[in-house]
Specification:
The protein is α/β, with parallel strands linked by helices and 256 residues long. Helices cover 43% and strands 23% of the residues. It starts with a helix and ends with a helix.
Length: 256
């Protein structure tokens, strides 16, 4: 009787182990097919970018393009956050003292034309001490499903933006307004945001390390390389803890 139960138990273990192995192989197979898909949907692409560290994206961009595609330390979040989405660009031009009530209407229309997974990228000429957006604009973006906003200029109504948990990066926090100081200069055009060129539809990713811009045409190859970098780096933590040597980990994985 005991021998019988031992045989049954052993068979059960073998069956479970085999089933788990098949599941693991199938799961990785599905992920491989998805990762290798030549034309992933926009939503799938952005979902993948949200799981990659901005530092890895920056490194991948530098290796593949030889260019700096990250914004400077001046670009700071009003609250710790992580997001990725497609750039929706807006430019405001300096126009001190203008009394035109429609001077900023194009800016508002640009917000209303955005949708889920949009990232509002606004550039204000010499706008470090002018708030490019505040609570009203943030509420509109949140209602339309924007992933976040990146402002080369100031931001205000910070307490309210934090209350509604809308992610914003900006070069400063100021109480001022753009009304009577600026005029709409264009939407969905190439802009230079904190030193980085951004085209409509480029992928903008942000986390605690900063903001990076991925040209849409290079998105899949940048993503794939960044995912490999993430995997190596995350695998290295345990090796470093075990061996107490970062040099050994770098030799093993070739990543720093």
């Amino acid at each position: 009787m005991n021998k019988f139960f031992r045989i049954v138990t052993l068979s059960t273990v073998v069956f479970i182990a085999g089933s788990v192995s098949i599941f693991v192989i199938a799961f990785h197979g599905v992920r491989s097919v998805r990762a290798g898909a030549s034309n992933p949907s926009d939503a799938e692409l952005i979902a993948e970018f949200r799981h990659v560290e901005v530092a890895s994206l920056s490194d991948a961009l530098e290796q593949l393009t030889g260019q700096r595609m990250y914004m400077s330390h001046r670009m700071q979040p009003i609250v710790a956050t992580k997001f990725a989405g497609f750039a929706r660009t807006v430019l405001l031009r300096k126009d001190e003292g203008n009394q035109d009530p429609a001077a900023l209407n194009g800016m508002l229309q640009a917000i209303d034309e955005g949708s889920t997974d949009s990232v509002y990228v606004m550039v204000l000429e010499d706008g470090e001490n002018i708030a490019g957006m505040g609570g009203l604009m943030g509420t509109a973006m949140a209602a339309r499903g924007y992933a976040g906003a990146v402002i080369d200029g100031g931001v205000r109504d910070v307490a309210y933006l934090r209350k509604i948990s809308f992610p914003v990066y900006a070069t400063g926090i100021v109480p001022s307004t753009s009304v009577h100081h600026y005029r709409f200069g264009g939407a969905q055009i190439q802009v230079t945001c904190d030193g980085v060129k951004v085209n409509p539809g480029d992928i903008v990713a942000a986390d605690s390390d900063g903001v990076v811009v991925v040209p849409r045409a290079r998105a899949q190859e940048v993503l794939s390389l960044a995912q490999q970098m993430d995997f190596k780096e995350h695998s290295m933590y345990a090796i470093i803890e075990q061996t107490k040597s970062i040099l050994e980990a770098v030799k093993k994985f070739g990543r720093l």
